[in-house]
Write a structure and sequence with these properties.
356 residues, alpha/beta, Rossmann fold, 2 domains, six-stranded mixed sheet, four-stranded parallel sheet, 15 helices, 10 strands, 14% strand, binds ligand F0G
């Protein structure tokens, strides 16, 4: 058994690298596919639900899959600086891989609208953080414009190498299960990830690594649901700040994934998203960030309505780690404040007996 050295090495034959390419990696990928045990029983349905826990990547989100490729290719092309707009995870990932490569990272983030952990990470990795008094969509527009005027490589998912890196998550799922799931559920913001998964699944099916393809289910936050409305949203709002996006960059690709897979888009309220996040933590011991739980909120809704029938094998991608957003977690648990007692055996005993 050789030491795992990242997804580019593992899937080298399926990625645009050569023997002389210097690989910029933090050993990303190879994340666990965890079968839910308690939630299916709780909802009383015969379904196999697996979660692909992407929060266990090196910077805590699926963005690392795309970033190892994008930064590897930027460095190969001689770039000394990368830039992105971000709701927080892309910026953290870009900053980390730039640090690893020894190049600069510039990140544009919407002021006051990114989770605390993501900001802390990005600062620690020493990126140049530019906060704008605007949202992600405005930041994305500015990044595209500035890249025409400055020697910086864009590492948002409009960079095709990002999609190539992220498609490996679909490979890992098929490699783990031996087949593609019947349904694949994802939170959708910019729609790069749904595009990447569809690319990965169709590539494996074309090469007969798997004999089937999943139905792709893209779930959005109710206040930021351009795919459900069928038009761009100018003022997106949701507690799930990672997917607070109204003008998705991979618009056409995502519609192709939906159409070709026979899938659909749907939207869920902040309350539904937060309930799914709490449920996963409380009943399965899996702590993802709010946006990530949108995939489970959607799956549970569609299982409940019968749109996803019993007997189905379902994969939900959990895109980011719950630790990234401590403020929302504390808000979710406002009624479960830790108790403070004397440091004595008696007091501890009483506290335990009281809550048994
Ligand atoms: N989940 C999380 C945790 C995310 O950070 C994102 C996107 C998504 C889902 C949606 O993925 O954009 O490929 O449809 N975050 C980007 C960022 C926009 O800047 O970190 P998508």
């Amino acid at each position: 058994m050789t030491h795992y050295t990242g997804l580019i090495e593992r899937y080298r034959k399926r990625l645009p690298v050569s023997d002389s390419t210097r690989i910029i990696s933090l050993n990303e990928g190879n994340t666990p596919l965890i079968q839910l045990q308690n939630i299916p029983r709780l909802i009383g349905k015969e379904v196999d639900i697996y979660v692909k826990f992407e929060g266990l990547n090196p910077t805590g989100s699926f963005k690392d899959r795309g970033m190892t490729m994008a930064v590897t290719k930027a460095v190969e092309a001689g770039s000394h600086a990368i830039i992105c707009a971000s709701t927080g995870n892309t910026s953290a990932s870009a900053a980390a891989y730039a640090a690893r490569a020894g190049i600069r990272a510039f990140v544009l983030i919407p002021e006051g609208k990114i989770a605390l952990g993501k900001l802390a990470q990005t600062l620690m990795y020493d990126a140049k953080i530019i906060q704008i008094s605007g949202n992600f969509d405005q930041g994305m527009q500015l990044v595209k414009e500035v890249a025409d005027h400055a020697p910086v490589t864009i590492v948002n998912s409009i960079n095709p190498f990002r999609i190539d890196g992220q498609k490996t998550a679909a490979f890992e799922i098929v490699d783990a299960l031996g087949f593609a799931p019947d349904y694949h559920c994802l939170p959708v913001g910019n729609a790069g990830n749904i595009t990447a998964y569809w690319k990965g699944y169709t590539e494996y099916a074309r090469d007969r690594v798997c004999g089937n393809l999943p139905v792709m289910c893209g779930y959005q936050a109710a206040g930021a649901a351009p795919f459900v409305l069928g038009e761009m949203v100018d003022h997106p709002e949701t507690v799930a700040t990672a997917i607070r996006i109204g003008h998705p960059q991979s618009w056409d690709f995502a519609w192709t994934a939906q159409r070709e897979s026979g899938g659909w888009f749907d939207k869920f309220t902040d309350e539904q998203i937060l309930a799914a996040q709490k449920m996963l933590s409380q009943f399965e011991g899996i702590f993802c960030e709010p946006a990530s739980a949108t995939s489970l909120a959607g799956a549970l809704h569609d299982i409940g309505s019968g749109k996803i029938p019993e007997g189905s094998k379902i994969v939900c991608t959990l895109t980011g780690n719950g630790i990234k957003d401590p403020e929302i977690a504390m808000m979710q648990c406002a009624d479960a404040k830790p108790i403070t007692i004397d440091a004595s055996l008696d007091a501890v005993k009483r506290a335990i007996l009281d809550s048994l």
